Description:
0% strand, mainly alpha
Amino acid sequence: MSRKLIAEALGTFILVFFGCGAAVFMGAHIGMMGIALAFGLSIVAAAYGLGAISGAHLNPAVSLGMVTAGRMSVKDFVGYAIAQVIGATIAAFVIMVIAKGAPDYSVVQNGLGQNGFGAGYLGEYTIAAALIFEIVATFVFVTVILGATQDGAPAAFAGLAIGLTLTAIHLVGINITGVSVNPARSFGPAVFVGGKALADLWVFIVAPLAGGAFAGVIHAMGITRADV
């Protein structure tokens, strides 16, 4: 289990470092499409590089979906979630340290690719829109993961399918919430940015976990499972 937890922490670090790092360091140059690709490609890299060790969940919502789908114990979920949050937090810290090397960077003003909604945040969508998007997007994301990793699915393509799905979700939702679908990814940057990012964080914990859990329940019922 220790190797699995290290893999989850490292994999989540990769996701946040490349995804949020792209937003912080290159957002003005690559735009939302570039940021979406950074998140998607990081998942592909982590899935193929670390998936054989831990399954490369990299996301408490994914791990909770595995629990409700009957493919993971609650005890293992707790360990995975803690490792994922640690990896995301370390990644956000590293991004912040690097970003402070620029003369015009401020954590308060420029942020760390944190999630949010409402006045002053990207498209200024309402809290209701943020909740609905995060629940639906996470449900779709975890449904794809459960389907791509089930018995009989072409395992060699699972990482690619998952990464492309995350890219598509970002292409749809960056302007709404910055796209979380992952409580760990949201927690890391929010801790260092503080203020509104920390106040909004509950949305990006509750909504993804709800969407992920529901995807697992639907899978357990056989509705999105092939071997029924």
